[in-house]
Structures are given as C-alpha cells and as structure tokens.
Amino acid sequence: xxxxxxxxxxxxxxxxxxxxxxxxxxxxxxxxxxxxxxxxxxxxxxxxxxxxxxxxxxxxxxxxxxxxxxxxxxxxxxxxxxxxxxxxxxxxxxxxxxxxxxxxxxxxxxxxxxxxxxxxxxxxxxxxxxxxxxxxxxxxxxxxxxxxxxxxxxxxxxxxxxxxxxxxxxxxxxxxxxxxxxxxxxxxxxxxxxxxxxxxxxxxxxxxxxxxxxxxxxxxxxxxxxxxxxxxxxxxxxxxxxxxxxxxxxxxxxxxxxxxxxxxxxxxxxxxxxxxxxxxxxxxxxxxxxxxxxxxxxxxxxxxxxxxxxxxxxxxxxxxxxxxxxxxxxxxxxxxxxxxxxxxxxxxxxxxxxxxxxxxxxxxxxxxxxxxxxxxxxxxxxxxxxxxxxxxxxxxxxxxxxxxxxxxxxxxxxxxxxxxxxxxxxxxxxxxxxxxxxxxxxxxxxxxxxxxxxxxxxxxxx
Amino acid sequence: xxxxxxxxxxxxxxxxxxxxxxxxxxxxxxxxxxxxxxxxxxxxxxxxxxxxxxxxxxxxxxxxxxxxxxxxxxxxxxxxxxxxxxxxxxxxxxxxxxxxxxxxxxxxxxxxxxxxxxxxxxxxxxxxxxxxxxxxxxxxxxxxxxxxxxxxxxxxxxxxxxxxxxxxxxxxxxxxxxxxxxxxxxxxxxxxxxxxxxxxxxxxx
Lengths: 462, 205
Hints:
The complex is a heterodimer of chains A (about 450) and B (about 200). Chain A is α/β, with parallel strands linked by helices and about 450 residues long. Chain A has 16 helices and 19 strands.
C-alpha cells in the first residue's frame, strides 16, 4: 500500500462521515473569527434558534476594521464601530473568548493564533478569511471559508468540504543573500499563476523551506491562496516544536510529550503520491516585486517587465499601474511604504526592517507605516528598542490591525500613489481607491523607504 | 435559500480574467452586519467614478436586466468574502458563467443560490462573440439537465456540478440543515476520535 501524504493523514483523522456523491463532513478543531465575516453567521444561528455548538473551540479578535492609531479611543467611523461592537456583543452572548481592542492578545487573527499557541500541528483550522492558509506552516489543514460556512461551524463544529487534490512544491538549495520567504512565494506564484493551485492543497517541502523560521514558513503558507490553492502546509519539525513550547495555549507537562509524539508522525511518507509535483531551485530565486494588479504579476526587482502580448487583462493592469511593457522598475519613485499584514508583521519582520533602517533616514517624500501584527509583537518591539530605531529613521510605528493591506479603516493609500507593501494583494483599489501597490519583502520595502525609489536590496547590503 | 431550476435571460459580458472579489465588492463596503443591500456597490470602482457618477462604458451601466453574468477565467479569486456572492445575487444575477472559478467563491455562490457554470474556453469565447453580435441574445441555463445554451445560435454545452450541491440548489436546501441532521455522528466523533479539546483544555490524542 502506498504511503500517505501529510494532508491525507490529517484529513482522514477529521472526516466524520462521507456524503454519498458529495463532500465530506470535516470536523474543525479551531475556529477563528473576526468582526467582518462573522456578524451574519451569528444572526443566522440566532434566526434558526441553534446555539453555538462548541464555543470553547472558537476564538475571536478585532483586526480588519480597527484603527491603528488611538485604539483606546472610540472608533470614529460609525459603521466600523458598530461592526466591532457587534463582535463584542455576539461573543458575550455566545460565550466566545474575545481578544478585542485593548486586550494584550489582540491582533491580526493569523498572527495571534500561532503566537498564542492556539495553532498546533495536526489540527483543522478555519476562519472567514482567505489567509487562514497561514496556519498551515505548523502542519495543519487550515483554510479560509465564507460566512455561510462560518455558520456551519458555529452550528455543528463541522464543515462540508470536497476533498482537494494534493500538490507538493519542493524548493531545494540555498537562498541568495537578500532573498527571503516572501521572495520564495512571490517567485512561485509568478511561475504558477493566480489559478495554478486552484483545486489543490499544497505541501511546501525541500531544504530551502526547512531552513526557514516559523515566521518565514507562515509568510509562504499565507500566500498559498494567491495561486488559488485551498491551503498550504509544511510538515512540523524541531523548528515548529521549539516555536510552540511555552506559548500560552500550547500543551504543557505530560500533555506536551503526548502531543509531541503525535506531531512527530505528521509528515508525508517517502512513497506518498501527490496529484502534482513542482520543483524550484532556491539559488534561482531573486528579490521579487510585483508590477501589476494580481500577485502573479511579479518579476525579479532588477528585471524588465514583460513585453506587450495583446492580452486585454495585462494591458488593463499596466494602464492602472501606469507602467509600460518592457520597462525597468529599478529607480522608480515610491510614495508610501507599508510594512504589515498577516503576511509580514511578525517580530522577525520588524527586526529585519530595523536592522536595515538603523542609523538611516527614510527619504523625505516617503510616508512609511509599520503596523505590527499584534499587541504582543508591538510590546516585543518596544522591549527590543525597535520602536526607537524606527522612529529615528522616520517610520511611524502604529497599533495592530490589518490596516492598509485592505484599507477598511482610515489607513488608505491615496489614488495614483505608489506603495511598496509587504502585504499579499495588489488588486486594483485594494489599498484604497486608485492606489498602486507593489508587493515585496520587508527588506525590499525597507530599502525603498530609505532610498525613496525601487531598489535592489542586493545593491544596498553589499 | 431560493431553489434554482432553469433560467432564460440576457447576459452581461465582462471579458476580463482574474476578476477578484475586491473588484466585485471593495473592502470599504464590507462594514454591514446584515446580508442585504450589497448589490448597490457591486463592481463599485468600475461602475462609478470617484464622484459616484456612473461610468457609461461599464457593462452594468449599459445592460440593466440581465440575470446571467459571463466573465473571463479565474472569476472570484482573492478574498473569501461571501459579500461578493451576496452582491452579485442582490444585484439580480442568478448565474455566473466562466471558464474557471476560484474555489472559495464557488462554494460561497452555491451556498447562496447563485449558480456558477463552468464552461470550456472555446464555449466561453462563443458566448462572448454571440453577445457581442447581439446584446439582446438570450442564454438558457438548465440545472436539471446541466446545460447552458444559446438558442439564437443553436450552440450549447453541458456543465459539471457536485450531485449533492445540485440536489440542494434544485430544492432550496442549505448545508446547515443537513449538518444539523448529523449531530449524533458528530458527537460520536468527538467522543471517540477528536484529537483536540477546547482551547484552554487539551485532550490527549
């Protein structure tokens, strides 16, 4: 009998029942919720007269819609305020643990799950947010769902899901200096396209993936959805276990050893078969940046844009960005730099930015925002003196939230302005109506803030 | 959820690829706590200029009574916001046709009585051509037979749909009713096979 993939092992352990000719009933270990995609689901179960089935497996935070300045004051925007207040009252009414504004655990849902040890290997995790794929970095089946599915999990702690196909993406070799996790995933998406992973659950493997920290692995899994994949995952190893041990909700004492014994069985067997396999050479990956209006429209920062190809969607994207086919991006002026989002707002990202900007000044015309992923990241940054380094460099360290990644709050990039952003989506208007987003790594974003233009990090560090 | 059987309607063509859910409904319009009214802001930034005036060239400002949206491949990629499906449905569409759909959008559509019809690249192009030749062209989508046809040109194609989802759509049933009927099996799973307890109370695998 052929061996099993990591995905198959976890999937099988969570199937309650297969539906004839249809999807499987999949049991969910952890349900994360936030203010934007949950209110209609709470209203739904109340209308049906059904209780929230397992509130003790549900955790809430406020992140999408919160201000990143003066969080101690009432939210100014009345619609945002009422959405956040609805989350508070829904959680109170249904007995859900809420790490809302003012709580020391508050932050972006995909940052706090891992840092609190709520996310653990072998779990099924869902959230009404497509970047739930982030948690796959711990060896979980974690994926984003719609609000009707949030209501399914509220009512039964289960979800109906068709089993996806499996893909393994292996990245072997050593990364060049200046190249990091964000460049790996932007490189992969540029090769596979925004729909190359649709219908698949992806396992990332290979020596370059193994060498990444948990923060780097989260960045890679986070953007699995940007190639259309249902989710991404990485087999847990000593790096994973070291990260988890001692976190507030990680198992401790005898329970730790028992869990560890289970977690050490979570890998794809040597003879496991995947529906698709793709290989990349880490040495070929360069610092990446996007130039268009989807995350697959990326190039190595020192390479020219593709030539015109007669494609209407390509032409529309370049027109929106006001770039010309075939031109170079290096040296183009930048107006804003945004370092944040569930992709790159963890302490390691902040440390990397601080190391680059220390003793330097941002370019006068650049507005540089750095938005930590959580209160804990913010606190850690202060303890390490990162806040002072950033302030001296002219960066504005804000309070935690999704912020300018999707511009639901007031953190918007003005129309026509260029923003080098460590977030995950460069869609038209994503960072504000008319805003022009260039996705890149924290290192590439930091160096753009200093020089005021698109810069190759390799020139800067040499 | 409303049942879906068959529809004959004009179509609104949107021949762009990778239309993401941020275009379908921008994030700044996601602040409501009910499901109603999202249709007003469907394709907001393509449909209106910065002052809120309609963009005369955008298709929804030219065709007002279509129940079928025909779009380029990889429709609905990006954010999982179900508000995208709500907005399309609330506006009045009952079918979206494309040569490829993003996973989460497809699930969200099916959970709201909005039928995603996946056709071949070639047939999609035939649809765009037929609608360009005659904007009044009617399309016929029959869920029971799993066919999409252009009576005016005689062209048609069959489409796939999960049998369980087809049954739900034809009868206006939703997944929650189904899952609630499986409570006993779910509780048995929890007793016998669950790997993890509550967030604050771990169980041993």
